[in-house]
Amino acid sequence: MRYRTQFLLSATDPAQFPTSGAPEIAFLGRSNVGKSSLLNALVGEKAAKVSSTPGRTRAINFFALTNAELPISVNQHPKLVFSDLPGYGYAKISKSISSTWPAFIEPYLAERPQLKLCICLIDAKIPAQESDRQLIHWLRHAGRRFAVVGTKADRLSGNERTRNLAALKRDLEVDDLFLISSKTGFGLKTLWQQVEDAAQ
To answer: Which residue among 6, 33, 188, 189 has its CA within the 20 to 30 Å range from the CA of 153?
Structure first.
């Protein structure tokens, strides 16, 4: 299915979360990892604002995905909802997940029944960060389904991709991790498959 994407709302309190009941896919990662760029590449349009200053997102931004094959005039319920969460770990903004994520983040990740998949974005160009390990550990403890994705694959040579992928899997203690590029589209099809499998 082709999707049409529309900004839904920004929430800083659980009472503000969407009430649609559609499956939700959360995008998480450090503030300079390219969350908004990836979200835009996935949907094929500029839905999320890409800031030149990492760490600007201070709310959970929700985007409704509807059937693009139907006319805009048709009132549709979302088929999917993407949630773009505030970043963590950017040196000028924060030091750790626990001390800097606002209080509304944990209820969303721990309790949100519509949340079907957490996409954990890491920078494939650099070694695994402690904040990334903390996030993966937290999601495991919470029993959340997650996928770990290495961004900025276009900036790596073929040998670097192989080497970095192996190192990240080892250091983050995950069996499944794949690389993507928002710029070239590398790996987006694989990510879409994960999203649609989780949303079923």
So the answer is: 6
Please give the pLDDT value at position 93. Answer: 38
Q: What percent of the residues of the chain are helix, what percent strand, and what percent coil, each to the nearest 5?
A: 35, 25, 45
> Where are the chain's structural domains?
3-199
Contacts of 91 (CB under 8 A, 6+ apart): none
pLDDT, tens only, 74-113: 778 899 999 999 887 543 334 445 555 667 888 899 999 9
Per-residue pLDDT of 104-139, as tens digits, reads: 888 899 999 999 999 999 999 999 998 899 889 989
CB distance 99 to 63 below 8 Å: no
What is the assigned CATH class of domain 3-199?
A: alpha beta
DSSP label of 67: E
